[in-house]
Every structure is written in C-alpha cells, then in structure tokens.
Amino acid sequence: xxxxxxxxxxxxxxxxxxxxxxxxxxxxxxxxxxxxxxxxxxxxxxxxxxxxxxxxxxxxxxxxxxxxxxxxxxxxxxxxxxxxxxxxxxxxxxxxxxxxxxxxxxxxxxxxxxxxxxx
Amino acid sequence: xxxxxxxxxxxxxxxxxxxxxxxxxxxxxxxxxxxxxxxxxxxxxxxxxxxxxxxxxxxxxxxxxxxxxxxxxxxxxxxxxxxxxxxxxxxxxxxxxxxxxxxxxxxxxxxxxxxxxxxxxxxxxxxxxxxxxxxxxxxxxxxxxxxxxxxxxxxxxxxxxxxxxxxxxxxxxxxxxxxxxxxxxxxxxxxxxxxxxxxxxxxxxxxxxxxxxxxxxxxxxxxxxxxxxxxxxxxxxxxxxxxxxxxxxxxxxxxxxxxxxxxxxxxxxxxx
Lengths: 119, 272
Prior knowledge:
Chain A is built from five helices and no strands. With about 120 residues, chain A is mostly helical. Chain A folds into two domains: about 30 residues; about 70 residues, no CATH class. Chain A is elongated, with a radius of gyration of 23 Å. Chain A starts with a helix and ends in a 12-residue tail after the last helix. Chain B has two domains: about 100 residues, no CATH class; about 100 residues, Immunoglobulin-like, CATH 2.60.40. Chain B is built from seven helices and nine strands, in the order αααααααβββββββββ. In chain B, the strands form two sheets. In chain B, strands 1, 2, 5, 8 and 9 form a five-stranded mixed beta sheet that branches. In chain B, strands 4-3-6-7 form a four-stranded antiparallel beta sheet. The relative contact order of chain B is 0.12. About 15% of the residues of chain B have low confidence. Classes of the chains: A mainly alpha (about 120), B alpha+beta (about 270). At the A-B interface, helix 1, helix 2 and helix 5 of A face helix 1, helix 2 and helix 7 of B.
C-alpha cells in the first residue's frame, strides 16, 4: 500500500510532467512576430546574401548598414563574416561567395552598427 | 478516502500549474531559429523589399520565387504590388518601389527556358536546404554542391534608347468609374516593359506611378485617375519628350448621355 505522501508526490509529479508536455510540446509559446535577428542560420546567411546581391556600390552603403543592423547589434563585418563561413561550409556557388566577399570589403569601411530599433 | 482524493487532485493541479508556469513563463520554447514567415509585419515588408532589390540586381527570378515561397502567400503578386504602391505613397525609396513593381510583374510568368534548365535545388543551397529543413526538421542541412544559378533574362529597356509616344487615343468606356490616363510601355520587340516610372504633372501638382503594378492589365500597363477639366503632362522618366495637353475627352454613351473618356498613351522603344 502506497502511503498518502507518496501518492501526493506522484500526483504532483504527474501534474508537472503533463504541464511541461502540454506547455512545451502540445501548445508551446509561439512567436509569430519575430524579427530578423532570430533567423535560423541558413535564412540568416541568405538574408546577408540578398544584401550582397542588392549592393551596387558605395552609394548604397547606408542601405546595407540599415539592412544588416536588423540582424543584431554586432558589427556589420561580423555578420557578413558569419555568412561567409556558412557559405563556405555549405558550398555556395563561386558567384555568391564573390558577392559576399565584395560586401565584406564594402562593410569594413562602415562604423559599428547603429542602434536601430524596430520599425 | 474522499479527503485523500481531494489532496491528490490538488497536488496534481498544483503540479500541472507549476509545469505550465515553467513551460510558458520561466523557460518557454525559444524560437531562436525562426523563419521569415513569422516576422512582424514591418520586417516582413522589409524582407520582401530586400528580395525584390536582390532580384533587381541579379535578374534571378527562380531564386526570387524560392525566397518568396517562404511566405506561403498565394497572393504574393498582389502583396508585392501593394507594397510598391505603399512605398511610393509614403515617399519611400523609388528604386525599391520599382524593384517591387518589376518583381510583381514577373513573378507569375512561366519560367523561361533558361530558368527551366536550372533545377530548383540549384536555386540556392540556402533556400533549398531551408525548405528541406522546414519539411523534415533535420537539424542541419546536408551540404549539397550547387551549380551556379543561371541568370534569367530580365526584359528591360535597352539602355540609352528613350521611349517615344507611338499612339494616343481616347478610350470611351461608360463602365469606367473615372477617366484614366492609361500608359502602356513596350520595348522594341513590342513586349510590355514593367517598372517604368511615369511622371504626371499638372498645374498645381504632380504624381508618379510605375508600369506593371496591375499585371492583370498587362506588364507594361499603368494608370492614373484624371480630374475632369485638368490638363496633364505625361512623361516617362529618362525620356526627353513629355506628352503635353492630356485631359479627359468627352464620350457619348449608347443612350446619348455624355461621360468623360480615358486617354491611352502607348510608348514604344525605337528599334536600333
């Protein structure tokens, strides 16, 4: 015969387990309003690649800076280098690698990322 | 006995509440690996603008399509066109609005033979692997060597060859809600050209729009609602020859009533 305190403990643990399962698996907190800084690594690399593709010269460096700043507070060059690392590990085409390299060169001239809040 | 059950139930509920509190508040599932379709609206719009800007530079329609597909938006063409209009209305970047308009105009085109030769997997390892991961929840994408994506040809006007007015006619449509200046821009091969900026100037104002924002009416089509009695000057950006004296002209319906007609201006790029 199981004693009452043990039963209480079992009920407590059972409730806790069901609560965790429900909260983490069945109905987890969903973030439907995320921002680019939470992007998964592959999307993040593609985001930087898009910035590189859209980059058409020093006159668009402000736009580059604004776009990269939405990926987080790190310096733009760091963000681009992370994308370059990803590109290298995932066998991006030579053309894309070249684009990222051009962007990396361009952003070395930028000051550290401005403090840009959400729109 | 009954008291025991009450105690057990209370313990269970307490545990459940504690579990939920921990799972939802203390240590919720963190979405550090989010996808673009979960973005807050302004970021979503910025992402679309970035896709369009990248497309404007590379002309890689297949890659732009792959990127747009992440948003699972069946009306993506309308979304892009509306965003282009919004950018113009709020005085945003004209280049970005133009890029959005051009992409909106082309997004539903049948893939060109060149792009057909580029399989989807070579559109971009990033996008391809992202899609793969989305479907399979594989923690890391399998690196796949990819071919250099071919650029799809983006029909644009030949640089340096300004468009010229090739026809001007009055359109009498009694069902039209208001008279329009309808602009159609064609290249030298008579193919419609989207993304051409059209300037409209009148006595005390001016406005502009781009062709291709209403793809259902033609990729080279754009229009502007006229006010009766006002005379407009229409000019394609980078074209030296404005079309002056454009105003609504009187039309007569079958029942004898008169109504203001629209003006259709067709601009064509001369052959070289």
